[in-house]
Specification:
Blueprint (H helix, E strand, L loop, with lengths): L2 H19 L21 H6 L17 E2 L1 H5 L11 E4 L2 E4 L4 H4 L14 H6 L2 H7 L2 E5 L2
Parallel strand pairs: 1-4
Antiparallel strand pairs: 2-3, 3-4
């Protein structure tokens, strides 16, 4: 067996291992949507069992704090005892988990403690929404 074939086989095995391990690295806190399927082929079954569709629970904004520009700016990463927050499209996210990016000197520290909606609409907003927990709402 040549070195090229051996490298190809090892690469394929490595890729398969990564794909197998990927579900273990997903965010467990992320909401999931499940739908119950109804068997359309047997109408008598669908008449006996009600159609059930489960939608994600609505975000209850009454219990979440409302941040203003001034109150959000406190959570900019300069005080290590406080979490780091970013507002995006009216929602405030706790990005402390990605502290190395958002703390002073990090690549995105200019977003910390601000409403980053305009910049995050261009790139990164979907990552913020998917990765970080919601901690409040933002109103100017």
């Amino acid at each position: 067996m040549s070195r090229t074939h051996f490298a190809y086989i090892l690469g394929t095995i490595g890729f398969a291992l990564i794909l197998t391990a990927f579900p273990f690295f997903q965010n467990e806190d992320a909401p999931t949507t499940t739908k119950t399927l109804v068997d359309v082929a047997s109408p008598e079954k669908s008449e006996k069992e009600p159609k059930v569709e489960t939608e994600p629970a609505p975000l209850i904004t009454e219990t979440l704090p409302v941040f203003s520009k001034a109150s959000l700016s406190v959570y900019n990463g300069k005080d290590p005892s406080l979490p780091i927050y970013i507002a995006f499209e009216g929602t405030v996210y706790d990005v402390t988990e990605g502290k190395r990016f958002y703390e002073p000197g990090g690549a995105y520290d200019f977003l910390s403690g601000t409403d980053g909606t305009e910049l995050l609409k261009v790139v990164g907003g979907s990552t913020i929404k998917a990765k970080y927990p919601v901690v409040g709402t933002y109103a100017e």
